[in-house]
Predict the structure.
Amino acid sequence: MLKAKPVDTNDLKLLVRIAQLGSISAAARDLGLTPAGASARLARMEKGLGARLLHRTTRQATLTEDGLAFLPHAEHVLDAAEAARAALGREQAMPRGTLRVAAPASFARMHIVPGLSDFCSRYPELAIDMRISDGIVDLVEGAFDVAVRYADLGDSSFVARRLAPDRRVLVASPEYIERRGRPNTPDDLAEHACLVVGTLDLWTFKGVDGKPIARRVTPALRINDGGAVRDVACAGLGVAWMATWCAADEIRSGALVPLLPEYPLVSTQTLWALYPNSRELAPKVRVFIDWLVARFGPEPYWDRGLDTLPGLAHLAPDNS
């Protein structure tokens, strides 16, 4: 049986740079090589791996199917080497390479993407590959470096850093309340149009006696996007169970009004930054997580002052 030969990390660095620039010549110049020398390195690596990694033309180089499968693993080897050097204190290198991030769609659009210009200006040698989706991605299978996720953390296969609490409110527009009235208890929701985000139709409240009250609502409208549900709630279509990170501005403006203040919603979830514990914490992952923590703040900026509004005293930080 043929055994694959060890791969030089310099060859991996060359492959990653070609993938970024789409050109062997450009990558060679960037790394201080001649085009012929770079081509020879690639040929040697492909021979050692027993796989063709690049489609080559006179103008560009693109990854083959094998190359696309191999690239994330090459990046992780380089990350591990960089993390090992940093751990020894021998190199304070600027984070570089590609950072692969998975994040919830609505949350990313509202609270991560608007700040990326700041992050990228701090770390100009770092490229971002962000996949936003409300589906749960497999970090290992997808070769993601880090995932931002709202979850009830219970999987020990991940290392997690807490980013923010998950606070929920029941809301409706003033127009809807005028037309249909206010519910007085969770049971009254059976008589109201309920707007549901995805599969989240089991709403749990804290009763006046402190015990949980769970009610599965029948959706008048179900949309798999929190921002869209917020918008239709503002348009007066019904009662919505919303995250404060999604609806805080509308609550402050009065476009949405809190409901059932005596029965606050219960959430066991938290916003986490997750990464597989089988990998070293690469410098690029560390700086991204640190940036998120600083950006959101000890008390998330979207929640500041909400507890002073009528019906939202339960959102005070000490009670979260």
Notes: The chain has a mean pLDDT of 86.
